[in-house]
Specification:
Blueprint: E1 7-12, E2 19-24, E3 31-36, H1 46-54, E4 60-66, H2 68-71, H3 80-95, E5 101-106, H4 108-120, E6 124-128, H5 143-147, E7 153-158, E8 176-178, H6 195-210
Parallel strand pairs: 3-4, 3-5, 5-6, 6-7, 7-8
Antiparallel strand pairs: 1-2, 2-4
Helix pairs in contact: 1-6, 3-4
Length: 213
Amino acid sequence: MTTKIAETVQDVPTPTGDARVHWYLAPDARLVLALGHGAGGGVEARDLRALAAALPLDGVTVALVEQPWRVAGKRVAPAPKALDEAWRALWPALTAPGLPVVAGGRSAGARVACRTAAELGAAAVLALSFPLHPPGRPEKSRADELTGAGLPTLVVQGARDPFGRPEEFPPGTEPVAVPAGDHGFAVPKKADITQMEALAVITDAVGMWLKAI
């Protein structure tokens, strides 16, 4: 029987509106993994939900962070500066349990974590589907943003991600590749891996990495 982790929702005021933290509490937590969503979706993303379901059973409290623009029902994300401002403002809520916090997110959320983790005192950074470059524009690299975090960083990337395949990342980043996965870690029905197996690649890799944090 699968253990279901209860969700607790906390609204947090920020200068750009209320953010919302969806807490998935580990019974004997050793750290908090805070995950922001991307610009094209919210905390319902399959990888974020998979981590929220799996990691609390292994001593990691997961906080899925809903940016103010999503809470307000808007369809378009604001500029990076506004995303960073909200993330900084809600950070005290993430550190309130008194545990080390790993900053992370998917896509745009991963960029926010990379840009702010060091100044906020994060223990490490988790970058899911990091948008290394716009699709078809590899010359517009954001590698400096990723490597500039200055903290232990794990990148998990779909093998078919048009925003940057694993082999495109600079030396030293060594992304975990999700076979057949796209930017949302979706895999085709004809792939040699099922959707559940693809998500297990993510949760297993993140779980093992967090044990060393």
